[in-house]
């Protein structure tokens, strides 16, 4: 068995697909330290630059003094703290849904929703570029998953129209994590209205960034519907950790009773919820963070116009630069690292074959000078590579 695993690892490495971890020695920021060396980093999801905010650090310390370190039990035993409860209420109010429920991670939240609400006689419909957590949630539910081509609403409508399932659930990323584009949520919701389906929105990369005061993709499109089941994570723009699901009272109560990934796990440390209450306030009040982020996105896009690599159209902090081959993407990433800049190379199976890319993640913690430094390095490398334009 070990020999077989070793052979599979060698095959993966020869194809340029073996992943390697880096170990950071500093706080998550625009500038990080790895092996004693400082790098300008474009590789995290701390979109608003809150992960090191002094108020959040103090809130964590305050929460630890008040609640201790661990929750000690699952939510349905004795682990549900007043801090958890206050955060759930605040998240529901902030996103405009009747009720919200905390989960440990977005992965667990998606698994909990799908396995609790969808049974063997029901149907799931998913965009082909959805995050792995949505796809794996379908696998856990043992329900046949109908996947439609990316953003192809004509194909989705055909699938919905032909389904005789008791319950139908359409699943989509709000902001697609590898392409950075935003799902046409109003059109998806219209199809759900027409064919009596629920719409599960994974807003991991939109919460805190999109919408009025960062209230998410529903606010971005000015939508409100009892059909929407809204999931967002709290370790990206919110700068801390965790996830939540928001929706109608009946849905949230049913998840409390039936979502196995909620019921059978220890609750997250209450100190994190205490810190997230402060984070939510900062997201709401500090509009300058989203304004700076928008300016940096435009600066980066303008700076790439004369280069040969294709930048996918994205209004989000995720800016994917398509390279093509795995080897060239890895080489380009390594060349940037040699210049003191960290940008990850993303390869199959995370993205389709032949679309290996550099995934540039921008943050309000970056400066204009940081983006200029990245653009300058890319221009230098553009002149070195000999591939046709």
List keywords for this structure.
single chain; 389 residues; alpha/beta; Aspartate Aminotransferase, domain 1; Aspartate Aminotransferase, domain 2; 7-stranded mixed sheet; 4-stranded antiparallel sheet; 14 strands; globular
Reported for the largest beta sheet, the result is: 7 strands, mixed
Question: Which strand-content bin applies to the residues?
Answer: 15-25%
Which class best fits the helix and strand makeup? Answer: alpha/beta
Strand elements, count: 14
Name the CATH superfamily classification of the largest domain.
Type I PLP-dependent aspartate aminotransferase-like (Major domain)
CATH class label of the largest domain: Alpha Beta
Low-pLDDT stretches are none
In words, what does this structure look like?
- It is a single chain.
- The chain is an alpha/beta fold.
- It has two domains: 18-48 and 287-384, Alpha-Beta Complex (Aspartate Aminotransferase, domain 1), CATH 3.90.1150; 54-285, Aspartate Aminotransferase, domain 2.
- The protein is built from 15 helices and 14 strands.
- It has helices at 2-14, 54-67, 75-79, 82-95, 106-117, 132-141, 153-162, 185-194, 217-220, 249-258, 260-263, 270-285, 287-303, 326-338, 368-384, and strands at 31-34, 37-41, 99-103, 123-127, 145-148, 168-173, 198-202, 228-233, 243-247, 310-311, 318-324, 341-342, 345-346, 356-361.
- Strands 3-9-8-7-6-4-5 form a seven-stranded mixed beta sheet, with helices on both faces.
- Helix 4 (82-95) packs parallel to helix 12 (270-285) and helix 5 (106-117) packs across helix 10 (249-258).
- The longest helix has 17 residues, at 287-303.
- The protein is globular and about 60 Å long.
- The relative contact order is 0.16.
